TrEMBL record:
Residues 172-191 are annotated as: Disordered. This is Transcriptional repressor NrdR. A zinc finger (unnamed) spans 27-58. Residues 172-184 have a biased composition (Basic and acidic residues).
Amino acid sequence: MSFAYRLGSVQAGPPGAVESGEVRMRCPFCRHTDCKVIDSREVDEGAATRRRRSCQACGKRFTTVEEPVLAVLKRSGVTEPFSRDKVVSGVRRACQGRPVDEDALQKLAHRVEEAVRAGGTAEIPSHEVGLAILGPLKELDEVAYLRFASVYRSFSSIEDFEKEIADLRRAAAGEAADPRDRAGRGAGPAG
Ligand SMILES: [Zn+2]
């Protein structure tokens, strides 16, 4: 019988679960912890390791697939695996009624994941995930961005919105102004 299940983060395991870099697995049949690795190979282009194991107690064999998990540290102190789906559902809420399709949401979540992974730490505070969402969302849809930012930054007054909108306007004006354009004007013959 082939029995495969995906492991969570090595970090998230109970203390003492890791022994010389090797996760101690419980047998799915008898829950015994002494299982011997009989085969180990990389899968998903090295993103995960598939291990064939044999239980020392009941002798049954099973397979584990281990992949390092990017953990998100929530304000409550609890960690959970980074989930692109969670990014998508959070942003989708902010995009309600906006012309943002599923494809754009997936692309945004992909960018967020890349930004978060590029940070180089295995445990990211949840507010940094939110921060990584703001930039791409601003490019995608300004209304959705305002909605998301208002929750993420806990806007408490109209002034908070006004300030954010002023920033958006300034940024938009900055992009629109082409320096060559300005240099051209006034430099020519007076008309
Ligand atoms: Zn067993």
